[in-house]
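Quick one, tokens below:
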């Protein structure tokens, strides 16, 4: 069986590419995928034509590196969130939403607000009173920056 794989280079490259694709599922970083593309390019080349082992390795290396350099960023933008996108998505969950002040606070004193059933530390540049509805303008770790809601 194993001797048969090495006697048919297209089968060897196909299986190697499949191993790279499966490894991409368990290893983070999204770069092994492109070596799978290179292996499958070598497999297709072997199916169409009968290149020597040196040319097969060159095809594998060139396609792997070119696809890694040329396609990685584009595919990551399309299918994966960048850190900036993820942080803005989290901020959008808070920014502009209403919360309820649970204590008096203002520019010189921090307080607490309730948002989505959870108590949060809060700060404001305005005087906020207990029971007042506030608007979240920013989130800094576990602290919300709020301002009074204009009625």
């Amino acid at each position: 069986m194993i001797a048969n794989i090495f006697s048919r280079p297209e089968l060897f490259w196909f299986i190697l590419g499949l191993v790279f694709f499966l490894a991409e599922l368990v290893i983070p970083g999204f770069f092994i995928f492109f070596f799978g593309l290179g292996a499958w390019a070598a497999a297709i080349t072997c199916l169409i034509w009968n290149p020597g082992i040196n040319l097969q390795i060159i095809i594998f290396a060139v396609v792997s590196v070119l696809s890694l350099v040329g396609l990685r960023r584009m595919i990551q933008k399309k299918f994966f969130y960048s850190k900036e996108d993820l942080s803005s998505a989290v901020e959008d969950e808070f920014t502009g939403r209403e919360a309820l002040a649970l204590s008096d606070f203002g520019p010189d004193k921090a307080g607490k607000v309730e948002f989505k059933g959870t108590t949060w530390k809060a700060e404001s540049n305005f005087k906020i009173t207990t029971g007042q509805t506030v608007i979240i303008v920013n989130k800094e770790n576990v602290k919300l920056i709020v301002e009074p809601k204009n009625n």
